[in-house]
Design brief:
Elements: E1 4-8, H1 14-22, E2 26-30, H2 34-41, H3 52-60, E3 66-70, E4 81-84, H4 99-109, E5 117-120, H5 128-141, E6 150-153, E7 172-174, H6 179-190, E8 197-199, H7 203-234, H8 238-245, H9 267-277, H10 284-293, H11 295-309, E9 318-322, H12 338-347, E10 351-355, H13 361-368, E11 383-386, H14 391-394, H15 399-402, E12 407-410, E13 422-423
Helix pairs in contact: 4-5, 7-9, 7-10, 11-12
Length: about 425
């Protein structure tokens, strides 16, 4: 089958997708960020997710195959399949922010032709594609859904920073707005996903599957986070308890920690939003979110208590946070909960330094108004918090900090236990 594909949004999800499709089809990678486009044209990927060799290979192909990049909407007019991978964040009130999705749909509506297919990968609540996106496509195109154009939904399953479970190795859920379109969408993805596909019976089912994947993980982590809060009061180590409980074959070995990022810390609110719009107020999902959202505050307060216990002063003290990205060995700072630790410590009038060799200094400044240290130096910090388990931090000489009587708090339980004063 011949396809002329456009990938809308070239972030952590869109770029790997564009590269794989570009090896087999004619693909246009589109993004409104002109700086991003110019970087990709020159072979640079700020997300560090792309297979750069594969990207160069796809860009060198000609004819019915090959990858090109553009930020010019006019270049979309020759495409027949549009795959939307724009972000779907939450706003300050933790409600779904569909602005990027609606803007992308408006743009596509202006170039949509009869027979075209729009496939959404952005994480949404069940029914969003048909209830929110389709009316926008119809309005701006003047075309009729499921008569002149069609839609599909195939939730992204990209795991940022994971070099093992990459795009083609993760089974893909697919769906379409009609049985015929569902078959086309499924075959399209099956042509690049070596792990195979699962064709859902409807777009709503596919949307819901993505929402509950992350909600389930969020609830499980919230349970062990709550255990961590309880065991801290009891005076026992959470990981010792989990290790003991984990000797039973059916115990789920989740670990406590900060839950941020573009998926787990966001998607449950999409599911809750849909439930509440139908008159049901979810209990488990939102209680789990409340626990996880408060872990940064708990860490900061625990560190302050440990500092006091060591006889240190709080106001004006110097504290170092190691890591600001939402997960290890990854430059992604979206919805990072390390910021909660930072903000809580600042409330105590503590001087907080943050160092992260993976994060972009300008991006962190723009998103969170935090000035990252350009390089790490050992100075007499009152406390050091290991917030992210980057490889660089696993081999750090913490004894140098301990020599200055610093409190060492390990949120990831990733360094030598004899060196730490506390951990989640």
């Amino acid at each position: 089958m011949k396809f002329n594909i456009a990938i809308i949004g070239l972030g952590y999800v869109g770029l790997p997708l564009a590269i794989e499709f570009g090896k087999k089809y004619k693909v246009l990678g589109f993004d409104i960020n002109t700086q991003r486009i110019e970087g990709l044209k020159s072979g640079f990927d700020s997300t560090q997710e792309a297979d750069l060799e594969g990207m160069r290979m796809a860009m060198s192909l000609t004819g019915d195959k090959g990858l090109s990049f553009s930020s010019d909407v006019l270049d979309l007019q020759s495409c027949t399949i549009f795959i939307v991978t724009v972000p779907t964040p939450i706003d300050q009130f933790k409600a779904p922010d569909l602005t990027p999705l609606i803007k992308a749909s408006e743009m596509l509506g202006k170039v949509l032709k009869r027979g075209d297919i729009v496939i959404y990968e952005s994480t949404v609540y069940p029914g969003c594609t048909e209830e929110e996106c389709v009316p926008v496509l119809e309005k701006y195109s003047g075309l009729t859904f499921n008569k002149d154009f069609y839609c599909g939904y195939s939730p992204e399953r990209i795991n940022p920073g994971d070099k093992v479970n990459t795009l083609t190795k993760i089974k893909k859920v697919t769906s379409g707005s009609t049985p015929e379109i569902a078959e086309i969408v499924d075959k399209l993805y099956a042509s690049i996903i070596t792990a195979g596909t699962h064709k859902a019976p409807s777009m709503k089912v596919a949307e819901a599957s993505k929402a509950i994947e992350n909600a389930q993980r969020d609830v499980n982590i919230s349970f062990v986070n709550e255990l961590s809060l309880i065991f801290d009061r009891i005076g026992i180590d959470t990981h010792d308890v989990l290790e003991a409980a984990g000797t039973k074959w059916n115990f789920l070995k989740y670990k406590p920690g900060l839950v941020g990022g573009h998926c787990i810390g966001v998607d449950p609110y999409y599911l809750a939003h849909k439930a509440e719009s139908l008159g049901y107020h979810p209990q488990v999902i939102l209680s789990g979110r409340r626990v996880n959202d408060n872990m940064g505050m708990f860490v900061a307060n625990k560190v302050v208590k440990l500092m006091i216990a060591k006889g240190g002063s709080i106001k004006g003290a110097d504290v170092l946070i190691l890591g600001v990205t939402f997960k290890e060995n990854c430059p992604d700072v979206r919805n990072t909960k390390v910021v909660d630790i930072y903000n809580e410590l600042k409330q105590f009038q503590i001087n907080v330094d943050v160092y992260d060799p993976w994060a972009d200094i300008a991006e962190v400044k723009h998103e969170y108004n935090i000035d990252l240290l350009p390089k790490l130096s050992v100075k007499p910090y009152a406390a050091v918090i290991v917030a992210v388990a980057h490889n660089e931090f696993l081999t750090l000489d913490y004894s140098a900090f301990k020599a200055n009587n610093a409190v060492i708090f390990d949120t990831k339980a990733c360094i030598d236990r004899t060196l730490v004063d506390g951990r989640l």
